[in-house]
């Protein structure tokens, strides 16, 4: 569709709407608006953002596809209950400021969520339009609309107002999405808030894990700047448990409450032969080298090297695996194989990212799983030996269990292997704090208000949920902040 | 928070010492622990260095490093009053210190630096301390006086015989292990290959041995897995499970190969840095 055609269509729809003659039929007839994106061949060689965002005309047309259902099933699908239908109506009417205000009632990081939330299994999964077409990809593109309004606001974001000082101090451990939200909400209540971050840059997985081409660092940077302008102190290079313990923060440094949002940063390995060979990475290491230390600029500024790979195998099927595979392409690999033991249907990665990965030439090896990694006399990885699988009966998770086919071994020649099969809880807090309760996977146990077993200590995000999502971590940051604000209101000074 | 360098000197060829403001780390650190630093901006590499000493009341820590590549060369070019942008720590599990009777501490080259706080703590715990320090040649000698002050016996060796005894550290180590009573424990820090051969010696004499591994690191908090080594055939993370391990169980051969993974790129980064500096010199 050209710009003029879009404009014409929008005008006729708006005219019908005004005249009260706009029928659901008219809305169903609007073609779903695709988001412009960088050409697949070009983007293999850069780290700039892939998806470019809607134009205003596209956004308004997409918004007109929304039926404004009375029951708004989309809202039930949203982990933080954004008033989706209302913000979409505002966009359709051309009131993007109002749309953003509505989103911000429930979500503090719309530019992030609009980009990385798995909408197709949340709000868009339950959207009436998608159900009508029996195709979730034809649902209203709620995420893209969210991104559209968030990006419009990028430069002029207002600084949230802050209540007068309460004299109470809150420590936030970890600066991921949960920590950012908890910091903002406790600061708004007037507490003196400090965020402690182990790395030299704040932002959590959003800066060291999720690549620039999917979530530009500048967006995360802006959110951190907003926190600073609100008066939140950000202390980097500070490892809670080592630089100071939680107990010291509370008894010696005078913090009245501590939110633990340290994420799930302990890479899982498979325990197969050859995993220690040179050229075998965890996805965390690979992505951290590339993102946080910008190894993609090695030789033109950056000091941190990354393997000069030609043939890469990435093991796994989640977002982390897609990010690692797509990063490998960008740092120069000629062949990248994604090895996953079930079928594409079971892949936990976002559909959009699977699609982007394929466009970028990543070869999907489905129903296969590594048995061992083979190395040469210098202990460098040279090949990965895989087994073929088939799907058996459903397991506890409801997904059909992959079963190895005996004798189906085969080799793929590679020089780099990236293991992206998940992360476990980092044990540092557990090892250095007494009085906290953890479950058998090492995740922190909290009640429905994100209170831990230790008075004054709260937790949320991946360290509680296991590897989850940005929006769920934000939701928990919010709940924890509400509990902190409640508890501190009652606490004598 | 930046960290100001309040003292700096060259200890020997390619070996440097600095005292740096880092009050919280100075307070918290224990022997055997290290920090990770990056010198400035976005693009700097993060490198681990052992905390060689600390003064909690002055809020300073001491680092001793060897110029091997780009980042350590950049560090060598800093002067008193300059700042290091990022230092995080203390990292790693502190050394287990107890009275073993006699302990033998072996430091190879720059390894003498991380060894010093451990040896001091062992001495303070009542051990009889036999120290063996080995260097390539006399101009690389460091910390001899510091070790002399705490050791009951001190042997210094050089590869070329330019100072002390002309030998590899494994020779005096074997002698110390052969004595009666046998040392209760050995602590060995130095180049990986040296630690490997020292462990072969102590194994023969059945002397329990602690080594401190210096793998390549990124985050130092157990997040990336880049520092992993094989101990008893199982993967261990040096930054959180170590850096010290039972030397008789470490797969040194694999570790040496992993350490060499980035050799070509490291050379490239270093050469570019040196070239860049030369050009600055010419412009002036
Ligand atoms: C590669 C990758 C891709 C992903 N893609 C998506 C996606 O597309 N969509 C989506 O919704 N989710 C995605 N996720 C998951 C999502 O990023 C996480 O669920 C979310 O970031 C968890 O947030 P959190 O608040 O728990 O903290 P995290 O983002 O995990 O941040 C925790 C922070 O705490 C710091 N920290 C750790 N220990 C300490 C300590 N002791 N002291 C001080 N600081 C400490 C860490 O350095 C880190 O900065 C992805 C994850 C990865 C790794
Ligand atoms: C726990 C620990 C404590 C250490 N303590 C000291 C110390 O007190 N004094 C000291 O001089 N050195 C110490 N090291 C080694 C020091 O970190 C490396 O010499 C330094 O990282 C080299 O960086 P570069 O950029 O100058 O050299 P590069 O050009 O990057 O590398 C030169 C060589 O150094 C080794 N190396 C490279 N990167 C790392 C890395 N991130 N970590 C470890 N080794 C690496 C490799 O063998 C490489 O070939 C320690 C290492 C560890 C893991
Ligand atoms: S479910 Fe879909 S159509 Fe209905 S209100 Fe929500 S976004 Fe609009
Ligand atoms: S340095 Fe990353 S896990 Fe040890």
Global Rg of chain A? 24 Å
Biggest sheet layout of chain B: 7 strands, mixed
| CATH topology heading of the largest domain in chain A | FAD/NAD(P)-binding domain
Quaternary structure annotation: heterodimer
The helix content of chain B, as a percent range, equals: 25-40%
Structural class of the secondary elements of chain A? alpha/beta
How many structural domains does the protein architecture of chain A include? 3
The termini of chain B sit apart by: 32 Å
Which ions and ligands are bound to the chains? flavin-adenine dinucleotide, iron/sulfur cluster, FE2/S2 (inorganic) cluster
Quote the beta fraction of chain A.
15-25%
Tertiary shape of chain B: globular
Task: Return the CATH class of the largest domain in chain A.
Answer: Alpha Beta
Alpha plus pi helix count of chain A: 20
Give your account of this protein's structure:
The complex is a heterodimer of chains A (493) and B (284). Chain A has 493 residues and is α/β, with parallel strands linked by helices. Chain A has 3 domains: 24-151, Fumarate Reductase Iron-sulfur Protein, Chain B, domain 2 (Orthogonal Bundle), CATH 1.10.1060.10; 169-265 and 425-489, FAD/NAD(P)-binding domain (3-Layer(bba) Sandwich); 268-422, FAD/NAD(P)-binding domain (3-Layer(bba) Sandwich). Chain A is 37% helix and 16% strand. Chain A contains 20 helices and 16 strands. Chain A has helices spanning 3-19, 24-29, 40-43, 56-64, 73-77, 84-92, 96-106, 110-116, 128-132, 142-153, 177-188, 205-208, 217-229, 246-251, 283-291, 319-330, 351-359, 428-432, 462-465, 470-490; strands spanning 169-173, 192-196, 233-235, 257-260, 266-267, 280-282, 311-315, 335-340, 363-366, 368-375, 381-394, 400-404, 410-413, 416-419, 423-424, 457-459. In chain A, the strands form 4 sheets. Chain A has a 5-stranded parallel sheet. A 5-stranded parallel sheet of chain A has the order 6-14-7-8-9. In chain A, α6 (84-92) runs antiparallel to α7. The model of chain A has no long low-confidence stretch (mean pLDDT 90). By secondary structure, chain B is an alpha/beta fold. A 7-stranded mixed sheet of chain B has the order 12-11-10-9-13-14-17, sandwiched between helices. A 5-stranded antiparallel sheet of chain B has the order 5-6-2-1-7. In chain B, strands 4-3-8 form a 3-stranded antiparallel sheet. In chain B, α2 (70-76) runs parallel beside α9 (263-283). Chain B starts with a strand and ends with a helix. The relative contact order of chain B is 0.13. The complex binds flavin-adenine dinucleotide (FAD) (2 copies), iron/sulfur cluster and FE2/S2 (inorganic) cluster. FE2/S2 (inorganic) cluster is lined by residues 217-220, 222-227, 237, 239 of chain B. Chain B: Pfam families: DHODB_Fe-S_bind. Chain B: Its cofactor is [2Fe-2S] cluster; FAD. Chain B: FAD binds at residues 64-66. Chain B: Keywords: 2Fe-2S, FAD, Flavoprotein, Iron, Iron-sulfur, Metal-binding. Chain B: This is Sulfide/dihydroorotate dehydrogenase-like FAD/NAD-binding protein.
